[in-house]
Amino acid sequence: MLREIERAVVENPVTNAILFNELTGSIGQYFEAARYRREYARYRRKYDVDPTFRFNGPGILLYGDGDIKLGADSYIGRYSRIQAESGRTVRIGRNTAVSHFVFCYTRNRIADQDMSVAPNTNDDLAVNEGDTTVGDDCWIGAFTFLTEGVSVGENTVIGANAVVTNDLPPHAIAAGVPARVRRFKSYLSDEETGTLATEYADALSDDLAGEYR
């Protein structure tokens, strides 16, 4: 009976295709995982990565000749990117969650210029550069873009799909394009939120700014 079942499986082209795909898929996943393990080990050697920092998933890219400092008990999600130009630094603090498809750069083209000067290279184009910092205990939502030179204060949450173009205060919840503070965390006193609202007036949403006028 078992031989008859085995023969039926082997002779059935549909079953054969399923078994082949399962086998080759598993092998492919094994080699892909091994490749990323080697790549992440290389990042740990090249950059300042705490031993407890986690690379969660495939496709994470760290590159550039600058400094990348990744803190203890933090992680970065799949297909995220961190770029550090020579002489620049990206810092991710302790206990910070960076979700998948998050992009963090220290150098970017200035939009308001004639791109035809150098259509295929960056050599003759004006750029902005700056260190980029994310504080301790933060949560950066998926598909967020952190532009060059920005700083995110400790214990701040940034909602998914945000573009951070200015410094964000600590203990805040921010979202949007560009990212703006929607509210401060509820454990802060009125005095504390008032001080932060004054210090980071340019980072507040219109609705929140109206509350502090």
From TrEMBL:
<dbReference type="InterPro" id="IPR051159">
    <property type="entry name" value="Hexapeptide_acetyltransf"/>
</dbReference>
<dbReference type="InterPro" id="IPR018357">
    <property type="entry name" value="Hexapep_transf_CS"/>
</dbReference>
<keyword id="KW-0808">Transferase</keyword>
<dbReference type="InterPro" id="IPR011004">
    <property type="entry name" value="Trimer_LpxA-like_sf"/>
</dbReference>
<dbReference type="GO" id="GO:0047200">
    <property type="term" value="F:tetrahydrodipicolinate N-acetyltransferase activity"/>
</dbReference>
<keyword id="KW-0012">Acyltransferase</keyword>
<protein>
    <submittedName>
        <fullName>2,3,4,5-tetrahydropyridine-2,6-dicarboxylate N-acetyltransferase</fullName>
        <ecNumber>2.3.1.89</ecNumber>
    </submittedName>
</protein>
<dbReference type="InterPro" id="IPR001451">
    <property type="entry name" value="Hexapep"/>
</dbReference>
<dbReference type="Pfam" id="PF00132">
    <property type="entry name" value="Hexapep"/>
</dbReference>
